[in-house]
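ARCHIVE CARD
Drawer: 12
Card no.: 0347
Subject: one protein chain, sequence and derived structure
Cross-reference: see card 0346
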Amino acid sequence: MEWLYMMMPISGVNIFWPGLIILGLGVGIIGGFFGLGGAWMVTPGLNILGFPMAFAIGTDVAQMAGKSLISTMRHSKFGNVDYALGITMLVGTIVGVEIGAQMVMWLERIGSVDKVVRWLYVVLLACIAWMVFADVAKRRAKEIAAREKNQVLEKNATGLEWGKALQAIRIPPMVHYKQAGVTCSFWLPITVSLFTGWLAGILGIGGGLIRMPALVYLIGCQTHIAVGTDLFEVAISGLYGAGSYTYKGRTELVAALIMLCGGAVGAQIGVVATKYVKGYGIRFVFGLAVVGCLLSVVLKLLQAEIASMARVFDVLATIVVLALVSLTSLYITVRMVQGAKAELAAKKAAGN
C-alpha cells in the first residue's frame, strides 16, 4: 500500500494522499456553503494525517486563499457579498493575522505549538457550538410562542439578539452597509476583524470559523450575506497569510495544490447549495459540523496524553475528521440536488 503515500518535499513527511483529496473536495463544498475557508477542519485534519502543526497551518492557509476566492466570485453573482463591510474588516484582519503568525513562530521555538493550538481549538469550537445551538433553541422557542398566539414569527427573527444591542452603541463615526442592511459604529467591524485576524494567524484559519458567526450574531447580518462577505474576507486575509507562512518556510505547496484542485470543484457545489438552504438550516448544520470537528481534536489530545492508547486514538481521530468532511459535504450536495430538482419542477409547472 506504499503507493497511497507521498513524500512531501519541504516538510519531509509521508502523507496519505487520498486523504488530501477528500479534505480538499469536502472542505470546498463545506466552505462554499458555510462561508468559511474550512481551516477549522483542514488544519487539524492535516495534522492528523501527519503534518507538523506549523506546516499544517501554513499549507492550509495557502489552499484556503485560492478556494475562497473562487467561492467569493460565485457568491457575488447571487448578491451575497457586502464588499464595503468586507473591506472595512480587512484592516483589523491583516494586523491580527501577522500578530498570530508571529506567536506561532514563538510557540514553535519553545516547543509548545502543537499542544497550545489544539487546546485553543477545543475552547473555540466548544464556545461556537454552544452559541449556535443556543441561538437555534431560542429561535425555536420564539416560533412556538408565536404559534400559540396564532402569529407568524418574522422571517429575519433570531434567537440571540446581540447584534441589535451592539448596533445601538453609537460611537462615531457611524456607517451604513447597504447590502448587509446594517448601520453600526465603524469600530464594531474593526474590533471583530482584529480578534478574528489574530485567531487566523495563530490557528491557521481564515478567521471564518468565528467571523461568520460574528457577522451574524455581533454585527447583525443575515446568514446568506454573512456567508458571502466572510468568504471575501477569508480570500483576502488568506492571500496575505499564505505569503507570510511561505516566506517563513512553513507551506507545503504540493499538498496545497492537490487540495486546491478538489476544493475548486467542491466550492461551486457549496455556493449553489446556499440558494436552496437558507438561514437557520445553514446554522444548524454548521453547529453539527463544529461538534464533529471538536471530537476529532479531543481524540488527538488524548493520543498525546495516553501513550498506551495512542495508536487507537490516532486512527479514531483520522476516521472522525474524514467522515465529518465526507458526510457533511454529501448532505450539502444532496440538498443542492433536491433544491435544483424542485426549482426545475416548479418552472416546468409554471410553463404549463
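Annotation on reverse: The chain is about 75% helix and 5% strand. Residues 19-337 form one domain.
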